Amino acid sequence: MREFLFGNLKTRALALILAAFTWVSVWRESTDVFPATPVIDIRRPTNVLVLGIEDESGREISNVEVKMSGPRGQKSDLRSLSLSFPVKPGPDGKIPPEVTFDVNEDVLQLPAKFRLVEAKPRRIRVRLDVLDRQRMRLVPAQPAPAGQDPQLAWVDGKLAEGFYVKSVKKSADYVDVTGPRSVVQNHQRIEIKPIRIEGLAAGVHQFSAEFGRLDGQAVAISTQVTVTIEIAEEPQEQEFPVRISLLQTEEYTRDFTAVPAEKEAVVRVRGPRSAIDELKARRELLVVVIDIAGMGPQECQPVDDKPLFAMCPLVPQLRAKFAGSEEIELSVKAPEKAVTEVTFQRRAK
After folding, report:
1. Which residues contact 11 (CB under 8 A, 6 or more apart)?
2. Cys staple from 159: which of 64, 108, 163, 218, with CB 3.0 to 4.6 Å?
3. Are residues 110 and 139 in the same domain?
4. Which domain holds residue 77?
């Protein structure tokens, strides 16, 4: 009994292995139908562009759906499947504006033992053009709002209240544009997309320009263009009463006196709100002076005991610099002509 059960065990195991190997071999060689989406590869010279790929109805497509029959065991060979078609110059040596070809086994480059069963679409049309370069002027994508600063055409959005666009500068006014010849030859200008300025604080900000398409076609720009935008605070005005001071040398004050008719002037300050607030807090920074030290002797030094009278300008000044002081404008509101009479007198010895 034992010999009957186990005597031919090796033979039976070998037969089972051979049967399994035969089944696998037959299964691998048996055919089936497999779907695939091959990559479209239009082989062309480096100076030729593919503008679009369409089916027979003119609908833009990005791939082709095919079905193929072949051995089940070689299904993995379809992963690298591509649809390859060469583009060559015509009899006149020029690249045609479009070429049409059938989706068949020749352009699919099928692996061995595979056959094409179905393709959608069956025919493909490729639109072509030659690369060309054209120098173009940079222009804004839209005009500035009516009645506003023309430089606002380069920006989009609103700043916080109290701020404004002080300047917009581009690193270039012209660029070389490379694209389809049928497109670039019909244009002399290319648009820069407006720069979003919402949320920008006061200061200088730089952005890389983004360009629009030409007739719906993407183009390449030769150099990077930088747009520099300066945001500033809206200027405010404030009037300050300021005591008039005299600028004079020690030698002059030793021998002469100078007495202005006006003791105080009203100074109009125009500039950023933050700078004006600083002056409100530090009034000693603002002065109005009569520059006697800069006057000639004949203008301010009497030759005898009689007084000398002269009309002298009143000059508003800042004692020191602070944040925003470079943007401040000073003017004398009163007296009206920003001058006052000064009496010069020789001191008694």
Report:
1. none
2. 163
3. no
4. 30-121
